[in-house]
Amino acid sequence: MSGSTRTPTLADVAETAGVSLSTASLTFSGNKPVAEATRERVLAAAAALGYRGPNPLARNLRQGRSGVVGVAVGQLSEAFRDPATLPLFDAMSEVLGAAGLGLLLMADDDGHARLPLDAVIFDICGRDVWMPYDDLVARGVPLVVIEGPAWPGTTYVDIEHRRGSAELARHLRGLGHDRVATVTLEPSQPQREREAGLREVYADLEVVGACASDLTAAQEVVGAWLDTDPDATALVCQSDVQAAGAVLEARRRGLSVPGDLSVAGFDGVATPWLDLELTTVVQPIAEKGRTAARAALARIEGEAVADVVLPVELRVGGSTGPAPRRDAQGG
Questions:
Q1: pTM score of the predicted model
Q2: CB neighbour class for 288 (10 Å; exposed up to 12, middle 13-18, buried from 19)
């Protein structure tokens, strides 16, 4: 092998270690025990040759697998504008990559769903339906759904939307806010659960409007609402990106946050557009991704996987404060 540019093979490792090809294979696969001294000799030979292990794609194909897990994320252009997306993908890639599997990002109606995927993770992203669902179930493809309905034949991974929103609402009530409004996501299970949590405390909650987790869209929705000279002294948004847009729009109109209007969000992501920390419900985004990926791996192996609901946590920042005294303002 000296001076050769050829990629070392398992056969080269076996020859260098002085063992049979089957023994070298078993050292890497772990399917059967190998004597420790033999194992160390094989691994030392592999290290000396620069051999990185069996090709996972070839192994998967021999097992009737593609070595790829699909992740349906809605519209790809919108997904990458949401700062909650990248840590989710990173966490999935961490788990799947360690298992030798690749990750394929798919749009809602992407024909990739018809490929021979080992499993599919569906990131609900504010949707209640998905076109390829029936076809994937009919083909027996393992499905994991993130923050979505517990569809038959799937494992779902969710967070405490309702509890987190209710805790946020109680925080605002404690600050003296009697009138609260909300900007929601598009109709979906997360949207309904977060709104229901707020209504546990504010039965007369005002719904300002709905939009994607997008800065410009949120500014437009909040701007139209502020044009109506609303009575609400606090605005709860269903994402931190929406909340950042609300803060920017309120300030553009000369309003103080939180002096004139308290603003809160949901997610716990970085908001580089702001010079203050948002009050928000922090969800475990990375753990959600790892949990979904681990569930997909288990289902690929034919294991039964229970649904998972992950906890959230209220984080109080500088965007919420005591309700302004309306009588002092002549209101």
A1: 0.77
A2: buried
